[in-house]
Each structure stands twice: as structure tokens, then as C-alpha cells.
Design a protein that fits this description.
Number of domains: 1
Strand order of the largest sheet: 1-2-3
CATH class: Alpha Beta
Helix content: 40-55%
Number of strands: 3
Distance between the termini: 60 Å
């Protein structure tokens, strides 16, 4: 019985299919906005077949790296195309 309770949610999740690009974009945007260091940076997020495309400006390389890491943590992301530009001003 316990085995069935554990397995049921896993099977149900697989039946839903892959996560949509729209959902991925929304979740990446939320992660970026919620982060105290990178929230507020002018960053655009797009996704194509699970690959997140990041564009816009950040003030330093540390933030650029952090945004990429945040995007990679989102469920359904298969890759990140980081096109962010570092611009201190």
C-alpha cells in the first residue's frame, strides 16, 4: 500500500508530459525577481524547447553567473543560452 502511495504521484507527473516553455519562462522570471541580488536587473527571458534564452544587462559577471544558475534550477530547463551583457552603468 505504501509503495502505491509513493509511486502514484510519480506516475501522474510523467503522464502530464513535458513542461511548457511558457511555464518555464514564468518560473525563471519568478526566481530572478525573488532573488535579492539579481531582482530588478533588466533581464528578458524566453524559452524554446526547454532551452532558456537570457537577454538584457547585468552590472557584473557575478550577477550574470547567478542568473544563469537560477535559470538552470527551474524544472524542465534543458539548457541556458546566456546572452546577458555586463554593463556597470
Amino acid at each position: 500500500m505504501l509503495f502505491a502511495l509513493i509511486l502514484t504521484p510519480l506516475l501522474a507527473e510523467k503522464e502530464k508530459g513535458p513542461i511548457s516553455d511558457d511555464t518555464i519562462v514564468d518560473q525563471v522570471r519568478v526566481k530572478i525577481a525573488d532573488d535579492s541580488e539579481v531582482g530588478g536587473q533588466p533581464i528578458q527571458v524566453d524559452a524554446h524547447n526547454g532551452v532558456v534564452v537570457l537577454t538584457g544587462k547585468v552590472t557584473n559577471d557575478k550577477l550574470k553567473s547567478k542568473v544563469e544558475k537560477l535559470a538552470k534550477k527551474v524544472k524542465g530547463v534543458t539548457g541556458v543560452d546566456d546572452k546577458l551583457v555586463v554593463s556597470p552603468d
